[in-house]
Amino acid sequence: MTIPPGPLSPADFADLFTDSPSHEPWPSDELVAEVETELGYRLPAAFVQVSRVANGGMLRRTVITVEDGEDVAVDYLAAIGRSPEDSLLGDLGTAFWIEEWGYPPVGVCVGLTVWGGHVTYWLDYTDCGPDGEPRVVEIDQELGYRTRLVAPDFVSFIRGLRVDPEG
User: Fold this and answer.
1) For labelling alongside 138, which of 12, 69, 109, 127 has CA 20 to 30 A away?
2) Per the confidence metrics, is the pTM higher than 0.90?
3) Are 29 and 77 in contact (CB under 8 A)?
4) What distance lies between CA 53 and its chain's CA centroid?
5) Nearest of 128, 127, 87 to residue 111 by alpha carbon
6) Distance CA 102, CA 40 (A)
7) DSSP state for residue 7 in the 8-state scheme
8) First to last CA, the chain
9) Non-local CB neighbours of 137 within 8 Å, separated by 6+ positions
């Protein structure tokens, strides 16, 4: 696996994705710019770097500890693009979660759980503005859109993910 330049090191990618990587093409600089313009947010360099290794897909390192010490599951990262349907601008992307399910418009939905419920992971630009370095938060629709801090930035998010010891 060739790691494109960016803030993450090759070690940060070890066991990150399953053996079934996304079939989405790596996003070009032009596509990244188009997606950022349409979303209204600058994507973190680390998110773009990860997308150029696997543009969306199922994670192998799925467990991360949130601010209250609970371990939670992040199963999937969204692709940069308009397809598949759950990419950033896809039919089930960020706009879907805000418009159809009433999620707070804090930024960009980049991750999901697949076990059920509507627990999503967001790049939260509330404190940094659309061009800043967003924090990563978990928003749980079934718990009244409870928001918990997962990581202060996307680099810390990727480095905080670990393989579930229970499989």
Assistant:
1) 12
2) yes
3) no
4) 14
5) 87
6) 18
7) S
8) 24
9) 106, 121, 122, 124, 147, 148, 149, 150
Q: Which amino acid is at 86?
A: D
Per domain, the residue ranges of the chain are 10-163
**Cα–Cα distance for residue pair 58/77, rounded to 1 Å:** 7
Highest CATH level, class, for 10-163: alpha beta
Kindly provide the b/e burial profile for residues 65-79, where b requires at least 16 CB atoms within 10 angstroms of the residue's own CB: ebeeeeebbbbbbbb
Contact 49, 82 (CB under 8 A): no
- Write out pLDDT tens, residues 45-93: 999 999 999 899 899 999 999 999 999 999 999 999 988 787 999 998 9
Cα distance between residue 92 and residue 90, in whole Å: 5
